[in-house]
Design goal:
Elements lengths: L6 H10 L2 H8 L3 H15 L4 E3 L4 E3 L1 H28 L4 E7 L2 H17 L3 E7 L6 H4 L3 E5 L8 E7 L2 E5 L1 H7 L13 E3 L4 E6 L2 E6 L4 E2 L3 H9 L4 E5 L4 H5 L4 E3 L9 E6 L7 H13 L6
Helix pairs in contact: 1-2, 1-3, 1-4, 2-3, 5-10
């Protein structure tokens, strides 16, 4: 059975493209990973990895061996996890990176309910708009909004986000109500992430460049500025739910609202996710499966 020693470590190095990153994923020392892989190569009589000072890459033999081994490792991990689920409650700390009002108002409460179901589980949520370094920051998964760059990470769509344009009654009484998106060029607009607002005009997405006196990348601040009468705001509908219900804001340009972007769950390769992260992700996907903006 010692033939299998080092296989898990080798697959981790191949996935993470480095010994240190693999060690963090596996929760062991870098020297242990290096030693296990070296012993595996010695037993096989073949170099699996090409090492330089900055880069670790697969050799031709290593690439072939990796393709054979990766599914074996996944199957073993899933079997171990299934057995663990039958015997133990979730424990440890689930670390989540979030950003935006949607995460504050909807994702965080959902994770609170998840925590209530697992009394031994700790949850650490970091609200930060920067993209998480999953290895260095110890993040299990992140909640992000908008179009995602191709980063090699896994991204699962959590919810579609319908857009809404709003303004305060005081602002509309003073400056008039826009009838068409082109009218926004003569209005003060509150800019959140960018000044190019996408509207659905006769079935075609069109970009309208806006400007105004207030700009902020914080959704709470945008909503508050809009309530104060500083201009027209355009964000996902759920951002304004409380303000609309309280009649502090009212919708404008409704026939032209765009579909908006989506909110995503983002994480590293699924095979290295701990059970608590997998179950939390599945819980959120199920919770938001029928969610309407």
């Amino acid at each position: 059975m010692d033939t299998f020693d080092g296989v898990v470590e080798f697959v981790a190095v191949a996935e993470c493209q480095g010994f240190s990153a693999a060690a963090k994923q596996l929760g062991c020392s870098t020297s242990h990973v290096s030693r296990q892989v070296a012993r595996l190569e010695e037993r096989l009589g073949s170099a699996l990895l090409a090492r330089t000072t900055r880069l670790v890459s697969l050799t031709q033999a290593g690439a072939v061996y990796y393709q054979r081994c990766k599914e074996l490792v996944v199957g073993l991990q899933q079997a171990n996890e299934q057995l663990s689920l039958q015997q133990y409650e979730l424990s440890g700390t689930l670390r989540v990176s979030c950003a935006g009002l949607f995460a504050e108002q909807y994702v965080a409460p959902a994770l609170m309910n998840f925590a209530l179901q697992h009394p031994d589980l700790k949850i650490d949520i970091d609200f930060n708009s920067r993209m998480a370094n999953f290895v260095e920051d110890g993040i299990d998964f992140a909640i992000r909004y908008g179009r995602l760059e191709d980063s090699g990470l896994v991204a699962r769509k959590l919810a579609g986000r319908q857009m809404m344009a709003v303004a305060s009654t005081e602002y509309l009484d003073q400056f008039g109500r826009p009838i068409h998106p082109q009218d926004l060029k003569s209005h003060s607009c509150i800019v959140a992430n960018n000044e190019n607002w996408i509207f659905d005009i006769e079935g075609t997405e069109e970009s309208i460049r806006v400007n105004g006196r207030w700009r902020s990348n914080n959704a709470h601040t945008v909503v508050n500025a809009c309530e104060k009468g500083l201009g027209i705001a355009y964000m996902p509908k759920s951002s304004f739910n409380r303000s609309i219900e309280s009649q502090l804001l009212e919708p404008v340009l409704e026939p032209f609202w765009g579909r908006g972007a989506s909110s995503w769950i983002v994480y590293q390769n699924r095979r290295f996710l701990p059970i608590r992260a997998r179950m939390a992700i599945d819980y959120l996907m199920d919770h938001f499966s029928s969610w309407q903006e």
